Amino acid sequence: MILSLATDFIIPILMITVGVIFTFKPPQNINSLYGYRSPRSQSSQESWNYSQKLLGTYSLQLGVLLLFVNILVALLSPYSSNATSLLNAILGIIVLILPIILIEKKLRAFASH
Hints:
By secondary structure, the chain is mainly alpha-helical. It has one domain (2-23, 35-111). The chain is built from four helices and no strands. It has helices at 2-8, 10-24, 45-76, 81-111. Helix 2 (10-24) packs antiparallel against helix 3 (45-76).
């Protein structure tokens, strides 16, 4: 039970950590090691800076939201800890993919200006 609770909170804690890092110390230059790297984000320095800022914002907000949801699920779920962990893992995967979709949509609009 303790192990499953600990694993339930890995994704939101990592997202919050990434959000804090990218909010206060995003990568300044386009590179191949660190940062939100996509063809659109690497197309210009302005796109790069914008995408890093968005990643920080979305990761922090969604990580906090996911943490709150995971706590509620853990406290209120009538199902077994395995079923609860599976639900939290599915939610975590969705929340990990969501910033990519949102950032790419914003970058598409940013590039057209």
